[in-house]
Amino acid sequence: MRHLSITILTALLLSACGANNTQEVAEINNDWTGNEIKIDAFTDEKVKGVTCHMAHFDRGVYDRLKKGSWFENPSNGSINCVQTGPITVGNIDMGKGGEEVFRQRQSPVFKKLTVRRVYDIENNTLIYLVYSRRVVEGSAKMSIASVPLYGADITWADGAP
Q: pTM for this one?
């Protein structure tokens, strides 16, 4: 029993982990069973002046008991990113794989909702991709948001590419 209690406590602590630059903006009841849609806002640490809003699903107690997976949330996520101030681009990864800017656990060990930023140099656009990561199997659920830099007054910390 003690081992089970420690496991549950550890799982709860791990599932609460996320980016430290995140603020919950909305919590919308989806149905009578306690399922909710949550909207979080987060800022890109290396691109000042850009804020992303991400919607994701949080299962209620009834749904968790019915599905038999107490600690796991669905992998669904939707994202939109906008300019919310003067844009200053720091030392960002310019490669095709971009870099991770946000991660939120959807289960204690195996599943994360992840956001990556990719810079499209040809179109002068920042692209933010939200997708699910699983250790065992991937997920085809994804969403993107684009922040065009064309015509905007942008400060490049390391000089424009």
A: 0.73
